[in-house]
């Protein structure tokens, strides 16, 4: 896979620290705004990226690029992904995929018409711990209570309190705790249990944005409570509770670095199966395999999962707005 990166923010910097752990990946180009041109050039030098552009159109039409990684703020995902697909590139788009169901359907239509692949970059459903956890659900079933917690005091929250509003706290730019971090909980819950019958979001609102909140997802015979906070600190632990035992894990649901199975009758089993120390390495190794082998079956399955998550997000927004 010959990757062109659009964006030079925090997530791109983070990804580049593990790019050398991704097999058969070539960093072909990076593009950013004119204002951030120096950052792109510095990243290109540091990580041996072949081209650095201050014009996204040049990257879209770079013949050495076969796939575009969309690493820009949420509200720009749709426009960048659409232009990349129309230019004949595969697309890996950071979470959340886009803002609306119609936008997601349009991007998939363009991808299919151009025989290209579009996938959402979401870490946890590609991790080895997640795959094992899904297998172990049967050991504690039937499951009745799920409590997932992603609490992360935002590095931008202090500025927010001072009135400096950055995209992650801007309602006009698809910001907020639901979209930015509860999406990891949603991907995990939908991946493990499927789409819920009903959702209801209870946000903590400040300056017109949800800085934290609780999303209730209702299933037949099961309730899931998904907590996400950008305005608080916590030592996080999440639980999946069943009649025959409990599965629990500590830390971020996006990293999922560990989990334990505690059966009602038996010994606790502890797992740390993730192959790579960085949370983004497994997903991008999967994406390289999918794109290099043009594996549309797996790509479509991942897109269907992303659409189910989109349905939850849209319903959650409607439930409180």
UniProtKB/TrEMBL annotation:
InterPro entries: Gfo/Idh/MocA-like_OxRdtase_N, GFO_IDH_MocA-like_dom, NAD(P)-bd_dom_sf. Residues 167-247 form the GFO/IDH/MocA-like oxidoreductase domain. Residues 2-118 form the Gfo/Idh/MocA-like oxidoreductase N-terminal domain. It holds the Pfam family GFO_IDH_MocA. One of its GO terms (molecular function) is nucleotide binding. This is Oxidoreductase. It comes from Lactobacillus acetotolerans.
């Amino acid at each position: 896979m010959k990757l062109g990166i659009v964006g030079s923010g925090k997530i791109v910097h983070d990804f580049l620290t593990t790019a050398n752990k991704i097999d058969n990946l070539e960093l072909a180009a990076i593009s950013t705004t004119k204002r951030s041109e120096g950052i792109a050039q510095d990243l290109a030098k540091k990580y041996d990226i072949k081209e650095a552009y201050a014009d996204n159109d040049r990257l879209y039409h770079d013949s050495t690029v076969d796939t575009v990684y969309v690493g820009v703020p949420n509200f720009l995902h749709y426009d960048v992904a659409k232009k990349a697909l129309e230019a004949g590139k595969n697309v890996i788009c950071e979470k959340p995929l886009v803002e609306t169901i119609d936008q997601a359907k349009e991007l998939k239509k363009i991808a299919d018409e151009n025989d290209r692949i579009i996938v959402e970059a979401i870490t946890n459903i590609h991790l080895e711990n997640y795959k094992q956890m899904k297998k172990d659900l049967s050991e504690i079933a039937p499951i009745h209570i799920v409590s997932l917690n992603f609490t992360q005091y935002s590095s931008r929250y202090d500025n927010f309190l001072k009135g400096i509003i950055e995209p992650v706290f801007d309602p006009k730019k698809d910001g907020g705790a639901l979209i930015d971090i509860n999406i990891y909980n949603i991907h995990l819950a939908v991946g493990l249990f499927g789409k819920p019958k009903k959702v209801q979001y209870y946000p903590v609102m400040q300056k017109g944005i949800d800085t934290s909140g609780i999303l209730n997802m209702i299933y037949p015979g099961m309730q899931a409570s998904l907590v996400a906070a950008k305005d608080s600190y916590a030592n996080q632990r999440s639980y999946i509770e069943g009649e025959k035992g409990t599965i629990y894990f500590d830390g971020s649901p996006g990293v999922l670095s560990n989990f334990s199975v505690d059966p009602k009758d038996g010994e606790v089993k502890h797992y740390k199966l993730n192959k790579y120390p960085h949370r983004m390495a497994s997903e991008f190794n999967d994406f390289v395999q999918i794109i290099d082998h043009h594996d549309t079956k797996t790509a479509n399955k991942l897109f269907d999962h992303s659409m189910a998550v989109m349905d939850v997000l849209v319903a959650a927004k409607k439930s409180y707005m």
